[in-house]
Amino acid sequence: MDEAIGAAYPSGMDVKDKDRRREKSDRRVRMGERARDIRHRRGMTLNDVAKRSGLAVSTVSKIERGIMAPTYDRFSQLADGLNVDIAELFAPEGDRFQPGGLSIARKGEFKRHETENYVYEMLHPESWNKAMTPMCGTLRPLEEMHFDRFVSHDGEEFLIVLEGRVTVHLEDHVPVTLDKGESLYFDSRRGHLYAAAGEREARILVVCAKLVGRGRDL
Fold this sequence. Notes:
Radius of gyration: 17 Å
Strand content: 25-35%
Oligomer: single chain
Strand order of the largest sheet: 4-5-7-13-8-11
Helix content: 10-25%
Number of helices: 4
Mean pLDDT: 88
Shape: globular
Low-confidence stretches: 3-10
């Protein structure tokens, strides 16, 4: 589920929680501003982006206005609609990754993106047009999350559990539970959801790759 945010803070929220929500809101606004700037530079309308991406015009508008935090499949579609690399939505400046290139990310060097259910840590966002999109994530138990659909997108996906235990819920497949150090590789066109298995949060590393000219049936 993509996250639409109301204007008011819940009553009883402490200062730390308010600061965290403010930072989260600021990140959504910055992402929306980047998307709008890219669209304007390319001379595109909201309707143009919607048609190219497959997203509703209202969804594109909400993202641009910073009132919706899109999940991976949605911001991947948005990038396609704008004809840019996903990383450009998270980093205002970057360089195209070149043959023979090298990119190093030190601890804490990432762009954070939060939705209602997931916390994404986008790795190497200043390296654009990479073959893969690597990210770390923090997962809560399924009971604390709110989904209305499976996530699916073109390409293939790799997941390895860094901390805790994770259950991967897959469309038309029994759930798969992974312990620390265990991994899963799958066709990401299959609907999927990640959640911590048990009461504690879990940490994962996920790598998504789009495939060109691989017209396989699922």
